Amino acid sequence: MADLISVIVATYNRSDALAAVLRSLSRQSxxxxxxxxxDDGSGPDTARVVTDWVSRxxxxxxxxxxxxxxxRLAEIRNRAIRAAxxxxxxx
Length: 91
Known about the structure:
By secondary structure, the protein is of the alpha/beta class. Helices cover 37% and strands 24% of the residues.
């Protein structure tokens, strides 16, 4: 069995783009991965997209969020790495 891969998707207030990425990931034939959404303080629309996809993505989906206090992409990526379960992280 292959090592689990953590796909980390960074986002900020682009729920439409996040939905497109999750839709694409749901169509993969190899399902030995998880998805960690690294959310740099988005509003409730992004949280709704994540909640909607949890049951239909076909792989584990985690949402890591912190309050919007300016551009802190590096920090939220690091938090997502800590939340990841995979042997490898792909951004």
